[in-house]
Write a structure and sequence with these properties.
- There is one protein chain.
- Helix content is about 25%, strand content about 30%.
- The chain is α+β, with helices and mostly antiparallel strands and about 230 residues long.
- The chain has a domain at about 40-45 and about 55-100 and about 125-230.
- The strands form three sheets. Strands 4, 5, 6, 7, 8 and 9 form a six-stranded antiparallel beta sheet that branches.
- A hairpin with a 2-residue loop joins strand 10 (about 220) and strand 11 (about 225-230).
- The protein is globular and about 75 Å long.
- The protein starts with 13 loop residues before the first helix and ends with a strand.
Amino acid sequence: MSSKIDRNPHEPGWGEVILGAALSVVLGVVLGALALVFKPVITAKELPKEPVSGVTYFIEGSRDTNKGKQAAAKRKAFAQGSSGTFSISEDDLNTLASPAAPVVAKPKAGEKPAAGTPPPTGEALSAGTPNFRIRDGKIQIGFPVTINTLGPDIKVVVQAQGVFTKQGDTFAFEPESLLVGSCPVQRLPYASTYVRKKFLASQKIAEDIAAAWPKVVGVAVEGNMLKLTMP
């Protein structure tokens, strides 16, 4: 006795077709974003006269300690709440962002870390020292990010350009563009929010500066200077 066996292949319905197409699009976006994140970024002091098409540049701000020699005095006066307008240059910001620190030698294999050596953070992502640049009415904040889950040498550059806006009772930095590597994450809402919270909003601010900041009544960028006005 024989019986017929239905060997017709299963024909997907419209729901399966739409779901498959949506997943393909999402996967393509994710892979494309990752490719841009790890695409090399050229770090330079100035933008080339003829920038290479398709290349992302990170133009560093000046860190001239001679030009920023008044940075400590400005910081102290600001923290004390002195009235008036403070003119802050990128040299001032970068001088204050890079305090001198003792060099600690790495322990050899089998040796214990020297006293005072900070333990590994254990975080998947860790940000380095920020660099500030002020040009054309915009402030740029950039810093290297190490991706610890992929190895100690895997680093990308995060750079944000924007202005200060009044948010509630205080001023806050509002990025207009946000790049992770070569990926413009401001076009990806969830990624943009994560990067802003993880790196920009989490940057450590000295307690005295944080205490004085709510007193600021005006923030403006004029030329290559950041102007902070205290009452």
